[in-house]
Amino acid sequence: MKPKYLLQTIVLLAVLFSMVGNAQSVQAQDPTPEIVTREFTFWDGFFYGYVDSTRYEKWPIVFTETNDFSVTVIPTSGDLVPLILLLDQNEVEITRGTGVLTSTQPAGIYFIQIQPESGGGSYELMIRRVDRDDFSMEVPSDNLNLGDVITVTMYLNNVPPEGYASAEFACTYPPTLIEVSNFVITDLFGIDPATAIFGPQGGSFIVAIAGSNGQRATTSGPVFTFDVEALQVGQATIECGIRVSTGDGILIDLPPVSVTLTISEVIVDGTLAGQVLAAKPVTVSLYYPDTTLATSVQADVDGTFSLTAPAGSYTVVATASGFLNAEGPAVITAGETTTKTTVNLIAGDIDGNGVIDQYDAMTIGMSYNTAAPDAADLNADGTINVLDLEILAANYRATGPQDWQ
Amino acid sequence: MKQTAILFFAFLFILSPATNVGAQSAESIWLEASTLAYKTGETVIATVKAISATPIQGFTFQIRYDPSCLQPINAASPIQGMNGLYLPQTEGLVDASFASTTPQTANGVLAEVHFLALAGCQTNLTLESAGLAIRDASGFAAPLPGVAIDEKNIVLDIDNAAGESQVNPPLLGTPLSLGPTPSPTGSSNWGTSLLIVLVVVGGTVGVMFVFYKIWQSRSANIP
User: What value of ipTM does the predicted structure carry?
Assistant: First the structure.
């Protein structure tokens, strides 16, 4: 090969390698963003930064105990859509959020990394520790009967000294089980606050309240109330989220709260009254159809009694020591008093076996002129004697239970 | 040695019947009659007997009879402290119960029952049910378990011919009447009847007195 051709070949190769080398150089320049560590953060402070595709920022934070907290990033310039990443001390991602991040973490070192989800620009960062009790929902009772109406009260608690300029409550509920209505705004945000109520519709509503003329909510207390009517049997959960603002244009998420209402059939009591005559104290008992005891009461000295129980069908039984039981049906009607016919208990069933027989008589004979067993003292005069035998003889061979209509 | 063995087996032989007795039912009740043939008008005596290893505080028995042949008169127990409990009777059935405030031994006659032979017939006395009673821990009369009823039936032959006029033989113990039950409200019925009689008589006398006064005044007005 002539030197001229050799040189041309070398030049061509040089040009070729030069092109390849340039291409490799472009690939190596794919921008790995610089992650800038900022200063340690503290609760409720505002921090400012700038991120774009080449620059991310991470803010260290140290927890000495478990904390519920929220991180809010508000873009202040550019077209930044901020992405918030929560990293552990080894910089492994725990969770992320766009604009807002809420989490609960135990004691330890963490990093809050801000990077653009898109665009770039300046931002304002706020890290706020939230109290689980900052927002609460109270109901007078979580057990309702069908048709019951209760008033639910929403509270703001632990309001910071600078107060809240506005709050937004977004709630969901099962519309088939409960009906929500009658929103009443309190004056926690001052007189005549600006309010907007969306819904209730399709199982959700939003209530937004802002203090007018610079008024703020500076104390804890009820924000608004609404009524809930129980429509169907079941369990209805009302769940509400809340965002508050201190007036700086940042909405802070507070942890959501919920309340579960148990709705039951309407159970209204009725009364069963009557009179059972016996020389001994009488107990009147109500039994459910499955023979379990519903309730019982000791009759007054004159034998009158009154029992209260849920409406329904029962068996009523009157008992007295030494007497045959009286038994009959009892239908209790809600809100009404049903009166049974007066019944005289039959004396002589001393051993309580449901029949007045020779063994009852023999108990009197064996216990003659004593006071025990009490069941044998049929006339309750304190002595078991011929008078008791006379009473027994009058009812000899009778069997119980006595029909009581 | 041989003599010892013989004595040992002889001893076992002697003991064996006693052991058998112990294995039998400890308590039983039965019905007896010393005489089975009577004449009309005579007193028929049936005896209820029992054997019991357990002291008792009461007993009861029910004897079925034919009311066209027999009429129950009374019953009594010879057991000390065992008192009859007067209870309503039903025709055709003697229903007798006795009780004591203290436990008593019952081996032999529990009670003697007297009937009057009404007419000539061949009839049965049947011990329909019977029981011995103890007092349980709560103070209630309770049947002594395991009591067997042995002889239940007695066949009596009553001649239609009238027997000699007979006084009801004395009973051992306080007699328990087995006659018809007086109405428990008898005394009040008597009172009511007496009141009615008094009202009727008083009313009649009053009316007569009024009529008498009217007649007297009219007689006085006659010139």
Answer: 0.72
Interface contact A362-B88, CB threshold 8 A: no
Q: Where are the domains of chain B?
A: 24-177, 187-223
CATH: 3.30.499.10, 3.10.580.10, 2.60.40.680, 3.30.1540.10. Which one for B24-177? 2.60.40.680
Please give the Cα distance from A253 to A130 (Å, whole number): 8
Q: Chain B residue closest to A351 (CA)?
A: B140
Contacts of B167 (CB under 8 A, 6+ apart): none
Shortest Cα distance, chain B CAs vs residue A318, angstroms: 22
CATH numbers and ranges of domains, chain A: 34-129 (2.60.120.380), 135-264 (2.60.40.680), 269-403 (2.60.40.4130)
Interface test with A, best of B62, B87, B174 (most A CBs within 10 A): B87
User: Cβ of A365 and B58 within 8 Å?
Assistant: yes
**B143 and A CB contact within 8 Å:** yes
Residue of A nearest to B134 (CA): A366
Q: Which two tokens stand for residue B111?
A: 């009670």
CB-closest option in B88, B99, B184 to A366? B99
Query: Cβ-count burial of A140 within 10 angstroms (0-12 exposed, 13-18 middle, 19+ buried)?
Result: exposed
Flag whether residue B150 sits within 8 Å of chain A, measured between CB atoms.
Answer: no
pTM of the model: 0.53
Q: How many angstroms from the chain centroid is the CA of residue B210?
A: 57
Q: Which of A359, A369, A397 sits opposite B141 (nearest CB)?
A: A359
**Distance between first and last Cα of chain B:** 139
- Residue A300 has a CB neighbour count (10 Å cut-off) of 13
In this predicted model, what pLDDT tens digit does every residue of B45-64 receive, in sequence order? Answer: 999 999 999 999 999 999 99
pLDDT computed for residue B191 by the predictor: 37
Chain B residues whose beta carbon lies within 8 Å of the beta carbon of residue A385: none
Interchain pair B57, A367: CB under 8 A: no
Å from B181 to nearest chain A CA?
Answer: 10
Of A102, A85, A106, nearest in space to A94 by CA: A85
| Tokens 């033989």 found at | B169
Q: How many CB atoms lie within 10 A of CB A202?
A: 8
Q: Which residues pair with A174 in a beta bridge?
A: none
Partners of residue A346 in chain B, C-beta under 8 Å: none
The answer, yes or no, to whether residue B42 has pLDDT greater than 90, is yes
Which residues of A fall within a CB distance of 8 Å from B143? 359
Which amino acid, B159? D
- φ and ψ of B31, to 5 deg: -110, 135
3 state DSSP class of A317: strand
- The per-residue pLDDT for range B111-169, each reduced to its tens digit, is 999 999 999 999 999 999 999 999 999 999 999 999 999 989 999 999 998 887 566 66
Q: Which residues contact A306 (CB under 8 A, 6 or more apart)?
A: A271, A272, A273, A297, A337
- The listed range with the strongest mean pLDDT (A125-139, A384-398, B170-184, B207-221) is A384-398
A393: nearest CB among B57, B58, B88: B88
Look at residue A81 and give its three-state secondary structure. strand
* Residues 329-368, chain A, touching B (beta carbon < 8 A): 350-351, 358-368
Rounded to the nearest 10 degrees, the angle between the axes of helix A386-394 and helix A358-366 is 170
Measured between CB atoms, does B138 come within 8 Å of chain A?
A: yes
